[in-house]
């Protein structure tokens, strides 16, 4: 909702109104998030702001406006200026500085005043913005601005894409192929117990890619050749003793761990 200001040259104390300073205020908290000035009617200016937001402009204020429901804020007139445009600019500067001082998290980029935005870019900023905008395949159109919003790609199309991607991230094509230890981007990364549990559950039983599969004779021969001469546990029982009992590890999936625990319970 917008506080409606009937636009009339006689607003104020009979003197022609040059313009107004307005603020976007959050209804629930009373906090101001943006202060602006206009020499047009307020309704019209707010309509322009909303259109700019819909068109996807990326500034803190428009990002906020896009994600905030229309009825979550109100636009209020802070001051009507009847003297001059310079005074209008000064009034805006004063209101911005007032609400910054009171701790309202204003999203204004500038400190106010006249001029297109009041922001003066340095040569470096211009250069950086120019670089960012070059070679960009398209503008971002989030949510309902996107032509695909509410639509889904056909299964045939998805299958074509899957086929064209197949193998494109495998083996030498993978950017991390052949990187080990500290060369690997995930080196030293520690997963939380929660994450490890989830990853583990995702690979249990029939969820496992190898569930119910048997390696071919050829594969088994390769695996056997790799292990030749390397001491292996002679049995599952032996492996359990070495890797679980001796290291104080308990594994739900190891029958011997479960047996040991049950025996302990029976004897205590
Ligand atoms: Zn065990």
Short recap of the structure:
By secondary structure, the chain is mostly helical. It is 38% helix and 9% strand. Helix 1 crosses helix 2 (60-67).
- The count of β-strands is 3
Query: What is the CATH topology descriptor of the domain at 9-101?
Result: GIY-YIG endonuclease
**Biggest sheet layout:** 3 strands, antiparallel
Bound small molecules, by name, code or SMILES, are: zinc ion
Given the C-alpha coordinates, what overall shape results?
Answer: elongated
Helix content: 25-40%
Residue fraction in strands: 5-15%
Order the strands across the largest sheet as they lie in space. 2-1-3
Estimate the mean pLDDT confidence: 83
Q: C-alpha Rg, in Å?
A: 33 Å
- The appropriate CATH architecture of the domain at 9-101 is 3-Layer(aba) Sandwich
- Give the number of helices: 9
The low-pLDDT segments are 1-13
CATH class of the domain at 9-101: Alpha Beta
